[in-house]
Write the structure tokens for this entry.
Amino acid sequence: MPDAPDPLPPQDPPPQAAAAALAPAPGAALAAPARVVPLASGRSIEIAEEGAEERIHIRAAAGQLLVSIRLTDEGPVLSLSGASLEIAAAKTLSLSCDTLRIQAAQDAAVEVGGSLHERVRGSVVREAGRSARTTAREVMLEASPGGVEIRANDDVDIVGERVRLNSEDPPMPLSWEEFRARQALAGGPGQPSALVAGEEAAPGAPDGRSPRGVS
């Protein structure tokens, strides 16, 4: 059998086809090459344009990105990266945004020399993996119009000089006569006469002692 003819060698595309393959798509703009400005410290400033966005990058000598500034149609976007960042304002530092997220991998501390005022229009949820402690000269807890609920899987200890539940406001009455007189004044004309009638109507102690141990 005669040998098969050798395949034809590949032919180069016509010049018009090669030019069309290298031409950008309709409506696309060629990205300008990035301009790099080296600094004496070894760091460099990189300026580039990507479509409608311009960006300025400051890189370390090893190439890590330290500062990034992107100018977009929605506004500038600033990104910082480093071992330590410090922001100092002599008078006022204001932050305003739709959503604020602060994340610390380890500890966080907030120190205020004056007063701290928090106002939250929604709900507040605080979760602690271990313990939570509140220390102040005076603590007041108020729920209005809702209630207060305390739950514990273990004991609940309340320690104070006096633990008062729905009790009289201080100073405490020193005798049953003073207590009955307060009740009569607080109740007004509708106050039951039993509170001012006699000793048997007074909420006496089981051992018959007067309030605060005064007879």
